[in-house]
Specification:
elongated, alpha+beta, Immunoglobulin-like, 8 strands, single chain, about 30% helix, 3 helices, four-stranded antiparallel β-sheet, four-stranded mixed β-sheet
Length: about 180
């Protein structure tokens, strides 16, 4: 067997370096771009479908064995979503979720980072009034005494409401009534 020549070693190093650069670039692009692409599609679908409902809120029916819009949806939860564009103005969020079971509202940035969550234990039964503002907003923001101002890391935000859905009809009706109080203006 012949020993590698200096030219072959240089060629091999060049190929390995090129392979390493391609691998690093592919990894970085995947880690950076994939969450943004997924959230762009989620925000688009939520905005388009929610635009036809009251308060710009998308309220899908409870999940069952045929539901596959999200990966592994929970049939024990009732969902509502809002797609928020904060580029020109703040978003007003309101809800009167007087509901005795678990609920939570989470806010997600356009790269899928969760930057805020509130639930029934933290918030209780009091009315929820938020003003969501982009962190680099150039528009005026008027504070009100009963409104919490939440700074979003960017100008595109997904709001996701989850509510524990009981099995009895009266409990389901109460969950739906509480879910219908969510407004995203």
């Amino acid at each position: 067997m012949n020993a590698p020549t200096p030219a072959n070693r240089k060629s091999l190093r060049g190929h390995l370096l090129a392979l390493l650069l391609v691998a690093v670039a592919a990894h970085a692009l995947t880690v950076w771009a994939l969450p943004r692409l997924i959230m762009a599609e989620v925000l688009r679908v939520t905005r388009n479908e929610g635009a036809t409902s009251s308060g710009a809120v998308l309220r899908p029916p409870p999940a069952d064995h045929t539901a596959r819009r999200i990966v592994m949806p929970s049939p024990d939860l009732l969902y509502a979503t809002c797609s928020l564009d904060l580029s020109e103005q703040a978003a007003k969020i309101s809800a009167d979720i007087d509901y005795p079971r678990y609920w939570s509202i989470a806010l997600y940035a356009d790269n899928s980072d969760n930057f805020m969550v509130r639930n029934d234990r933290e918030h209780g039964a009091r009315a929820l009034r938020w003003l969501i503002v982009a962190s680099d907003a150039s528009y005026p923001v008027a504070a009100a005494p009963d409104v919490e101002i939440i700074k979003a890391p960017g100008s595109r935000v997904l709001l996701l409401l989850r509510m524990l859905l009981p099995e009895d009809e009266a409990g389901r009706a109460a969950a739906e009534a509480a879910r219908k109080t969510l407004r995203c203006d």
